[in-house]
Specification:
Order of helices and strands: EEEHEEHEEHEEEEEEE
Number of helices: 3
Strand content: over 45%
Shape: globular
Helix content: under 10%
Largest sheet: 8 strands, mixed
Distance between the termini: 33 Å
Length: about 160
C-alpha cells in the first residue's frame, strides 16, 4: 500500500530519495522532519540577484542519511519535475566548496553554509511559480552572503546518491 500524497496547487507532489534504499516522502511527511532556517541570497548566471530571503527546510544531508548516507567520493543528483539536474559532491552537501560573495559581488570567505530542501520562503509555502513546492537553497546565518544560484534546483522531486 503506497503512502498518501499531498496535493498542492492542484498538483500531487512527492519527494523520492534513492540510495542504498529508496523512500518516498509526501510534503506533509517532509514538513514533519527536523528543519533548519537561514538566509538564502543567490545570483543567477546572468547577474540577477535573488534575495535575501529566509528559508526553512530539511538538510539534504539528513535526507540522504535516511537512505544509507554517502561516502566522500559519492555524488548526489538532485533532479526536478522539469528535467533539470544538478550534481553535488560530498563537500558541497556539507556546505563547503561554494564561492561566496558580498553585495558588491566581491569574493569573501565562506561563512557556514547549509544545503536544504526548502519548502518555505519568508514564512510562506514556496509556490510553483517560484520553484515550489520544494526547492534546493543554500542558506547561511548571515543575511548578505551571496552564492551562485544555478544549484538552486526548482521543483525538486528526486534526490539520489550515486556511489563512486
Amino acid at each position: 500500500m503506497s503512502a498518501p500524497v499531498e496535493q498542492t496547487d492542484d498538483r500531487i507532489w512527492n519527494l523520492t530519495l534513492i540510495g542504498d534504499t529508496e523512500e518516498v516522502l509526501t510534503l506533509q511527511e517532509l514538513r514533519s522532519l527536523p528543519s533548519v532556517e537561514g538566509y538564502g541570497y543567490g545570483i543567477s548566471t546572468v547577474g540577477i540577484k535573488v534575495g535575501p530571503n529566509t528559508y526553512r527546510g530539511v538538510l539534504i544531508s539528513d535526507l540522504i542519511e535516511r537512505v544509507g548516507g554517502m561516502g566522500p567520493e559519492d555524488l548526489v543528483y538532485i533532479s526536478a519535475d522539469d528535467g533539470y539536474l544538478w550534481v553535488f559532491g560530498a563537500d558541497q552537501i556539507k556546505g563547503e566548496g561554494f564561492m561566496t560573495l558580498n553585495e558588491d559581488l566581491r569574493e569573501i570567505p565562506s561563512p557556514g553554509l547549509s544545503v536544504i530542501c526548502a519548502y518555505e520562503r519568508d514564512g510562506e509555502i514556496i509556490d510553483e511559480e517560484w520553484g515550489g513546492p520544494l526547492r534546493v537553497i543554500i542558506i547561511s546565518d548571515q543575511e548578505n552572503t551571496i552564492v551562485e544560484a544555478s544549484s538552486w534546483v526548482k521543483w525538486v522531486d528526486t534526490i539520489e546518491v550515486k556511489r563512486r
